[in-house]
Description:
By secondary structure, the chain is an alpha/beta fold. It is built from 11 helices and 11 strands.
Amino acid sequence: MIKILELFGGIGAPRKALINLGIEHKAIDYVEWNEKAVRSYNAMFDNRYKPESIVGYSLKPDILIHGSPCQDFSIGGKQYGGNIADGTRSSLMFETLKIIEGLGGWKPHAVIWENVKNVLSGKMVGAFSRYLKDMETLGYRNSYEILDARDFGIPQARERIFTVSTLDDKPFNFNNLECKKMRPISEFLEEDVPEHYFVTQPSMVSRLPDMPINKDIFGGRMLDEVIDYVYTITTKQMRVPNSGVVRMDDDRFRYLTEKECWRLMGFEDKDFQNALGVHPGRPGMLNSALYHQAGNSIVVDVLEAIFKELLFPRKEQIFKGQMTLDQVL
């Protein structure tokens, strides 16, 4: 049985990926400071976790997954940086190193870190390079790659950098990831969407009717037979940028629904319904909590591909619970 630890765990995309793969595992713990995300996670996986910080945390997992806050790395944010001296939310990535150092000689066999690709930009790359160097000091081999959800079956132009650090002599090989044909956006869109999802802001409505299909629409795109994917799912849809708008038959336009956003992050409708049960929102209003949780998550399908490659050497035995990750690596 594989033991995982989810730091900055959000709504549990790593755990969902392992469930989808049928890999026997134990979530030895989950750490997330956002109380609403914790409630959704508990509802989805029938747990009783409480909001808490990762600072000073100590456990002994086989795989540690962390996706430290991206706001201070993101182009859409203020780009305050992620160095320890910056003291930002994004600098919490270095708390993971402290956790590993404090495990009394135990080290996770694999550490997976996900964030926005802007960490490779000139202003942000210093913090990323420091992270890689510190992981090497701890004995890890680092591999990283920018992955797009569209290459793993999800019609979302979501590019994220994934770093996989292992104690194995051989580095993780991103070239071996199993890609999938992108599914059509129609499989993810709902029918009979309520009126409160339609674009009504005068500043937006005035720009929509005569816009060519392939042009940007206030930071998003019109989704129809020509544009068959969405832009990156963000924490809000009624702002610039957003993930795109859907052209309706009556030439009106609407935002993506919360359920559509969850689908486009790789979650099933039952997961969304469980989260909706603890975050019902206000009738006739967009549900900001559920949008926020989708935008902050990791695409489940991308994690599935990473887990498959990470466990590939003896994957059949692992999937059947006949071999541990320790025996594989």
